[in-house]
Every structure is written in C-alpha cells, then in structure tokens.
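Standup notes
- HV: blocked on the assembly model, inputs below
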Amino acid sequence: MSELLVKNAYVIDPVNGINGEVMDIAIRDQWIVEEVGSGAMVIDAKGQLTLPGGIDSHTHICGTKVNFGRYMSPEDMRAGRMPRRGSMHATSGYSVPTTYGNTYRYSTMGYTTLLEGAMAPLEARHTHEEFTHTPLQDTMANTLFDGNWAIMEAVRDGDMRRVAAITAWTLSAVKGFAIKLTNPGGTEAWGWGEDVTCIHDQIPHFEVTPAEIITAMITANEMLNLPHSVHLHCNNLGKPGNYTCTLDTFDLARDLNKNRQTLYATHVQFHSYGGSSWKDICSKSEEITRSLNSKPHIVFDMGQVLFGRTTTMTADGPMEFNLYRLHHNKWSNHDVELETGAGIIPVLYRRSNLVNSIMWAIGLELALLTDDPWQCCLSTDSPNGAPFVRYPEIIAMLMSRRYREEEMSSVHPGTEHRVPLPAIDRELDWEEIAIMTRAAQAKALGLIDIGKGHLAPGAEADIAIYPIQIRDVDPSVDYMKVKEAFATTAYTIKRGRVVARQGDCVVDGINSTIWVDPQVPPEYDISNDPEFVKKFDRYYTVRMRNYPVQDVYLERQVCLRPEVSL
Amino acid sequence: MMRVLLEVKPRKKPLLPIEAECITPASFLEERDLTVWKGNRELMLSNVFNVSVTGEVDSVDGVEVVLRGETSRIKRVGEYMEGGRIIIEDDIGMHCGNFMSGGRIEVHGNAAAWLGREMRGGEIICHGDAGDYCASGYRGEKRGMRGGRVEVCGNAGDFAGEHLSGGSLIIHGDAGDFPGVEMRGGEIMIFGDCTRACGNMTGGRCHVFGTVHEMLPTFRNMGEVVHEDTGQVLTAFRGDVANRGKGNLFVGNYQYME
C-alpha cells in the first residue's frame, strides 16, 4: 500500500463543483481517498493550479495510420529528437512522434487519458501494441464502422438489432471503446471510385445513405448502452460550403440519453465552412454554434488548426485525395477490406494563406461561441490541425482577447472580412478551461463512473499540478504565463504515482486500455449467425477465429460490460 | 588568416564513424570546447585529432581548416558552414557540407554519400569520386541542393542531384543510376554516362554529354541542338511527361531499355 498527500492544492474540479478551493488531496494506491496516515509521502502544491489529469477525447497516437505517417515522413523525425535520459527512452518526431514521444509529451502537459480517434477493426492489433508502448496514459480506441459491409447490409434491411449485434461483436473482438463513423459511407464509395457529398447520397452497391448509417448507429449505440456516444466525423470534410451538410447531420441526432450526449461531433472546425469555392470560403461558426447551443445532446471537439508543419491522417480517404490535389506533396491511400480506409498527407498551414487563416479563426470561434463549455472539448484532432503539444497556445488564446488580436494581426489580411473572430470579446475562465480539457471529455466518454476526470474520493488518482498561481495572474494580459504553465506541469500524477516532474518523466509506467464488451444475449451473438459467418469467410482474407485481438495484446485492461437492451 | 590543422590520431578501430558536425571554420573563431560523437560516446575534438591553430582573424572568411590523415569515416564535416575554407587532404565520410550556405570545401580524395546534401550556397570541389546522393535531399525531403555549386572530378554514385531545386552540380566522370531524379530546378552537367536520367523531373536542366543507358520513355524528343560551349550535338528532351514535368534534358547518346 502506498500513500500520498498533495497539500495546499488550488483545486478546480468541475465535475464536483469545486472552483478554486485550497485543499489537500489524499491518495491511497491508485485511488483518491478521504484521508491518509501520517506516514504518507507529501507533495506541497504551494497553491498551484491543480486539476484532474487531462483527457484528450480525439487524438491520433497509435495504429497503422499513425505509423504510416511516421514512415512516409522521415523528415518529421529530424525534429523532437531527445536522447535516452533516466527512465525515458530516446524519442524523435514532431507531428507523428514515436510512441514514447507521444506519451512523454502528453504526460509533461498533465494528460493521463487518451482516446485514439480511429482504429480500423482489422488492424486493431497494431493499435493495441502501440498502446502498450504509451505507458503514461490510459488509452481507448474509437472503432471504425463507417464502411462496414455487414452493418451497411443490416441498415439497408432495417434490422437495428442486427446492427447492434454486429457492432457489439466487433467492439468486443477488437477490444475497442466506441463507435467511430468517419465520413460514413464516403470511404466505401471512394473504394468504388465515387464519393458522397452529403448525408442523403446513396452509397454504391449498398443502397444506403450516410444519414441512414448515422441514425442506425446512434440507435444501436443506445441499445448497447455504450459509455460513449457515436463519435462522428461528418461527411464532406474540408470543402467550402460544407456547413449545411454539418447542420443537416446535427439535425439527425435526437436526445436519447439522459446521462450524456447522443452524438459526439469531432473536429467541427473542418466542417464549418461557408462559400462555394476556395475563392469565397468563409466562416460559418455562428450558424454551427447556434445549432449546437440549441442541441445540448451534441458534444463536439474543436479540431483547431495552428500554423506550422504537421501531418494530416484520417480514415476519410477521399478527403485526403482532395488535399493531395491541393498540395501535390506525398500522399498515402489505404483500403481496409470490408471496413474502412485511410489517407495521409503532410501539410504546412501558413499564416499568409487565406484559407488556412480562416480555418485557424473558425476553431477558436467554435469554442468562444458555444455557450456551454461542457459541449466543447479542446482538441486539434492531433496531428491534423496541429500536434497536441500546442494545446497551451489554444488555451492562452481562448483566455485572452489581446493574444487573439496579436495573432490576428499576423494572419492573412483578408481573414477579418470573412470571420466573426475579431468581434468576439469572450475570454474563457479557468473553470471553463478545466471543463474543456478534462471534465467535459470525462463526461462525454462516460468515464466519470470509473473515476476519470474528477478528484472526489473514489476517483482514480490522475492529477495535474500546473506551475501557476492563478490568483496572481490575469490570463487576458499574462497569456504567455498561461501558455508556459500549461506546457509543463510541476507534477503529473498517474494512478497515484508521480510520473512526470517539471518536464521529466520519472517512471516507466504501464498502460491500461479501456474497452467495452457489451453483454449481448446468446441469441444475438452474431458470431453464431450462419449468414454473417458465411459472408465473413467468403470476403475477409482472415479467418473469423483469427480476427479477435487476444488478451496478450493488452498489458493491463479495464473492461466495461454494459447491459444491453435488444 | 587563421589556419587550423586537424590531423587524425591513430585509431584502434578506424572504421567506426565519427560524427563531427562541429568542424566548420566558424567553430574555431569561438573560444569553446568542441566535441564529436563516436557511437553514443561524446569525445573532445582533441581526443580524435591533433589540433594546431596558427594565426588570428576576425572574420570566418579568413579561416582555413585542413583535415589530414584517415578521414574517410569522419561524418558531417562542414555542416551548416557559412564561410571560410575546409580542405580535406584524403577521403571524407558521409554528409560532408550538409546544409552549407557559404564558403568552400575541397576534397582531394573521394567523398562518401550525401556530399553537399541540401546545401544552400557555397562551393564544394571533390577531386576524386563522390558517393550516392550527391547534392540531393535527405529521406523524405522534397528539396535537395537549393543553391551553390558542387563539382565532382571523378564519378558520382546513384541518385546524384535527387530533388535538386537550385544551384549546379557538375560531374566530370560517369553518374550512376537516376541522376536528377525528382529534380525541380537547378542544373546538372554530366560529362560521362549514366542510366535512367531525371526520372520524374518537373523542372531544371540536365546535360549528359555521354550516353544515357535505359533512357526513360516518358521524355518527349524535341530534336537536336548544338551545345554552345562544347559545340557537341545533343538531343533535347522535355519531361518527365509522366509527372507533367517541364524539365529539359539534353543527351549526347541514349539507348532505351530493350
């Protein structure tokens, strides 16, 4: 038994309604408890800002797609090179770092839980292997169902129970956490040389539309009582005028769950463009946030773009092809049989580029125009908008109008006529930042019940202590201090142990993967369904018995077993 | 003028490479300890070289660094060099003149791979042969040499001038496979033979005065021209059509692959 006492912590814990109280936090083993004995190790937080460990609800850190990004961009490995030091492995890479690069950088920023944004079921082993080498965070994987043949056939037949049964079996087999739809149907259409422009286009050979897939998966998600909602990357990403498609998509979601949202829309910045071409593209963040403010059952993440070099990677193959045609740089395209696909290209977002500047503004606008911070998660869709190491810049910009104005003065001069950002006065406060970087994520992912995202007794002892006395700092003026503080914690505590201290990771750590195994009655076990088995054997290049990910791929695991209502 | 003589001390394992990016003329203007790496061990420069410095100057342009002895495994000499001279009396290891933007490097022996990689300016003269990837871009990089001049008096290896986007690369002997592949600017002159010249080129000019073996079929034959300086009749090609390229390739003789 180990005991730890964090004294004099200036705590903001939005889940428990604590907003700036100096208090002590007692930890026994991996849990927060009411009190500890006098022999406990003591950390004096000295009144510094203390938050629950950060949670990233949409990032790309592990798996085949990320690894493809690594080996198609060896030049990226020139940056971020750190030699082996203490218990830290050597690292390299900036936008697609090595797994240890990811885990150390996240840990020194106070992040303790990460959701990999997209895992192709067939290639799940790779994701889990890389999770094992991401030892300082707990991880989960969104599982891609956007072009799943069996599911599209069940949707076409209107058999929601079958959709739920296939989803349950797949999630359980690949040890995934949630349903991810990336450009639903679009990547499958792209496999046939076609594309979908919005939610009512037919997908070739399957006679279903993206809207039908989205609606069916939301229904199946609620039937399976999954901790997270459907995690949706809308159709038509990155195209001028796509905001109407996004609004139509939001209209599909009904409020079906009283504990959390029914739909999580990811990287909404990329889906909030007005105009009819690149020449007249403009921000439609006001229309998008107006819709979101009236739909508390939708939660979203920003997908903020920041200027500089990065790598874009997504299961949205056709979108990456469009990007390739703009950039004419390297491009990777990948098909995952019967399930999904992927595309990757490196990009450079430039201040001098009008489109890039508008994208930058839209991300901030979405966060600033959303009334309820519990609906908005801070993200860059790392590394698509920018690598996650730049989150502190976003935090500082959201807290300081002056900082935004300074940045605005250096972007393309045409930007201010096409975005509402210059007219937005709002500056977020510390509590709102705490919500948007951990509490909202914990709630949206359904992790509060397993002790994530808060600091009450019974919670897991994941804590970030940032070197800043917030009572002495005015973030609207001292935004550089804010940025600096959020870049490197004084202490990051993971599962009751100090894992990072002032920028150094001090332990090897051990990853824990959270996954779901819906408790489906035997009559709905799709692996016994003759039709499903026959098609699996006919079309997949793997045998069904070899498909599930074995336990050996997960070093440590937390399996959630929701009771289903089929 | 300041003259720095670096004489390699006898080494028990002379094949082990030494990373010596600190060897630039500017380094010797400053009063600081210089270190090199052998594997994961950092060594003082004086552990590897006998160092003798004569003369004093204020400007880097007055510094001449001479490398003497077995230097064929000394890597990254002249990296980011901005001025002055480096004279290498024998062979030199990989990555000599990486990213250099000014000054001059003279190699009296052979140079290993990546000579003048991604250089921006200045001049490199190699009196012997150069290895693969001379004046090219490193793995994943879109642009190789952007400016300056590299002259190889002997032969060059494969992929000479890959991703070249500026400056000039002159090879007096033969070049290997794929010289000027992916080039987008700048100029290459090859006085000997080569194979598969300029695949995927989108811009720039390449002259091959000898024979291009396995000539790529994706270049449009524009007819014969007379080279102004040499008076030699060359066949002009434009391409690489496969990449919508608008590069100019002039060859003395060419043979398509059978």
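- HV (later): unblocked. The CA atoms of residues 33 and 457 of chain A lie 4 Å apart. Residues 53-449 of chain A form a domain with the TIM Barrel fold (CATH 3.20.20.140).
- Next: hand off to the docking folks.
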